[in-house]
Amino acid sequence: MARSRSGTRGRRGPRKPPRRAGGFTPGAVSVVDPSERGAIELPGTITVKELADLLGTSPADIIRELIKSGIFATINQLIDRDTASLVAEELGYEVAEATAAGEDEAEEGSAPAEAAKEQLWDEAAEDESALVDRAPIVTVMGHVDHGKTSLLDAMRSTTVAAGERGGITQHIGASEVTTKDGKRVVFLDTPGHEAFTSMRARGAKVTDIAVIVVAADDGVMPQTEEAIDHARAAEVPILVAVNKVDKEGAAPDKVRAELAQRGLQPEEWGGETIFCDVSAKTHQGLDSLLDMLLLMSEVEELKANPSAEASGVVIESKLDPGRGAVVTVLIQRGTLKVGDAFVAGAHWGRVRAMHDFTGERIKRARPGEPVELLGFDGVPEAGEYVRVVENERRARQLAGERANRLKTESLARRSGKKVSLEDVFTLAREGRVKDLNLVLKADVSGSLEAVEDEIARLPQDEVAVNVIHRGVGGINESDVMLASASDAVVLGFNVRPIADARIAADRERVEIRTYTVIYKAIDELRAAMQGMLEPEEVEDIVGQVEVRQTFRASRVGVIAGSYVTEGKVTRGAKVRLVRDGTVVYDGEILSLRRFNEDVREVASGFECGIVLKDFMDVKDGDVLEIYETRQVERELA
Fold it and tell me: Does 208 share its domain with 248?
């Protein structure tokens, strides 16, 4: 029997030694001895297998400890730092406190709405010798049917609008044009200014130049004005392309006059806005348009470092049934290569394949190049920042941390608003708001003009009311996205928000106010502006003291033996010393005594001893004015 058991044991292998009280087997910890190892640093999130490798134990031991805590996890499941810390401590390890660097990394994982605050690289610390010129990024906007797509097609010498190429350039959302001199210009084919502003609302600084396309036979239309307002809100240079100049009835000068009335004064008329007369049909003026874009880009001095780790912005994203997440990324810095691990908000991945705007497969992308990227684990939002990290493990860790932060910030945003008329006063007191941005919509142009006239009559010397966009008709999603990007309030008169606008307002936390009486709106605006005025500081004289004799004390310095002639004097009060009609000291009372006792207050008609803070040159006959200041809310004139 003994031989049989022995033989059985020989066939099955040696019996496992008993587990230690610490919860792990001797074989599992032969690599690492907790007593000899310092405190373990844990990331914000980590998989069960990665934790086992870090501790030098088996994933089964980690899973067993998690089960004891009521957590049923698989080998590849992410667990947070607190849970991992409990497991490590249970296995006899000391866990280091979260480092400041770790906190900084967590800060990098902010929500898309906070993306403007996320600095992907320090521009000031950039090595100037590594910088090279990059192609300008141009967004084309304008009224529907004014020829935006046809103009792009003409410059690309393609026929996407006619549908002959199937629309690779439309799907990728961006395209390139190479001039005769070999210089590149990148055009974003995003669908209209809504997407442009949506990206800006998420903090993505993508566009270098905005081209406003206006048909020479139609002139300025409502969406033209919207496009101008969106470009101005983004603070990007504007170039106007007057299209269809070959058509009968074309009036380019009329277009210039209409836009001059809206603040876009042509250069040939003494202004600063470049106008180009073009025709997408005959290709007239296209070379001049490209030359002007390159000239504007030279003025902007657009440069990037192609040797750094790659980073960029998501332009478009979609889920393809056959290829998975297909994401268009505009590279802003560095060179992206196939095989690079990256993180984009709550998503991560490795570059499996890249295609340029023509659909050709490429292995690397330099600054200013738009590429279609495969390899994301999900579909990120447009405007999300993408950056390369050292490995997939790091990418997965950062994405997990950002996903948790996104969830937390989403819950926090539900209860808040960006800007409302009620909280303008609070923001102004904190010094964060000195002007109020408005988006105005009305049922008819007459109402719109009446509202603007009333707003113009409001005193705006210290507080400015900026009407960043005005229009006739219902409040739409574009209005809400512009308000979100500009921290504005939407005011409507005899109009209501349509369904999409209401949903967008809830999501973006934009306040929409609708009125039927203009003067009620003006009263609320006046109240909001009044709250934004700096409070006035008023001084009140509360007492007057005459210095009759001075004494010196070794510990306290000069003591002014004084008589209170008016009002009262209190310890710690503000005081002004006047000598022969001239103020020689302005400070506070350090000590106040009567006889040999400290007192808090001395009334008129009594004597006292006063010591001034940081001032010893007190002389007989000096007059001390005791005063206090208070802030008084001001009213608009």
Answer: yes
